[in-house]
């Protein structure tokens, strides 16, 4: 579907390269059989991940002298004007070094999945712009941002010759974040444009049978901020990241997700040790993530009352096929449900209330309340035990990358920007 969408584009002055990441399902041969010489299939001898796979194609595009390279995930479908719109935008805006599309959900094509990304150096995380916003005239035509998702992105090869390609030692996830960030650090603008539209399955939001996503997301997020946070903000970064990690581990343990919690700690350790590339054996575990407590509790309820975020809860109950009536808050015959940012932050538990958060964690009995009472102290101890080691590892990792951007093509992290 991705290839066919490209072939139906409004412009035809392009060549299509498909990089096969050492697949064993015969897909490369099937593509060649279906499209013949219309598509050039490049076979990697081993799985190099998303970033390594893209870089294989990018190297060829740069070497052959093309003006632009457009990277597409195999599950992304562009509309007929997307390529033309991105190319025209880059032609008219020479100060832009990367342009992406407005991405919609595949199951609801009027709802925006993402329209640019912002890297938040206060919360030390990525923010997806316009996520789950209904498309309308209120949404701007051009969004200048820190980076765009690599599922649909176009970059001038002249920029790649200066900045380099994706950091292929990420293997997958946060590679597009880092690429866009370094293009921006090199003095270029990064933009997403509304005239280029696409739909995407968004693999990182799809539940998998293992902890593949959790491992790479956490390891590479740690690595990014350890490497790119300004020197004066390293203490703040270490505190925020360690607090965030502990909260996620505690939350996983609270729900009985022992494999998930173990994966997060392994990802953290590998980040400290500077371990990159494809995950070693024993890192990716069976995914035991669950929302069974949420489901079990709401299966027993027939009528509830909620003060805020009623529409959000209604949507969740509908998705989970839970036939619960939501009454007015004044209806005291209904069970009160209180929605909060995190049940781990509940200080005063009131018996009879059900507390839930946006991750579908639940607090509804004294036993759970007692468990949560120890959260703040445990988090403080975790921070005290880990911060020095974290900062020492950060110092070691940063010393490895203290090289300026060089006019040397596609040597991965060796070319990444120096921001201090």
From TrEMBL:
GO terms for molecular function: glycosyltransferase activity. Residues 2-115 form the Glycosyltransferase 2-like domain. InterPro entries: Glyco_trans_2-like, Nucleotide-diphossugar_trans. The keyword Glycosyltransferase applies. Keywords: Glycosyltransferase, Transferase. It comes from the Bacteria. Pathway: Cell wall biogenesis; cell wall polysaccharide biosynthesis. The keyword Mitochondrion does not apply. PANTHER family: GALACTOFURANOSYLTRANSFERASE GLFT2 (PTHR43179:SF12), RHAMNOSYLTRANSFERASE WBBL (PTHR43179). Belongs to the glycosyltransferase 2 family. This is Glycosyltransferase family 2 protein. It comes from Lachnotalea glycerini. The lineage of its organism: Bacteria, Bacillati, Bacillota, Clostridia, Lachnospirales.
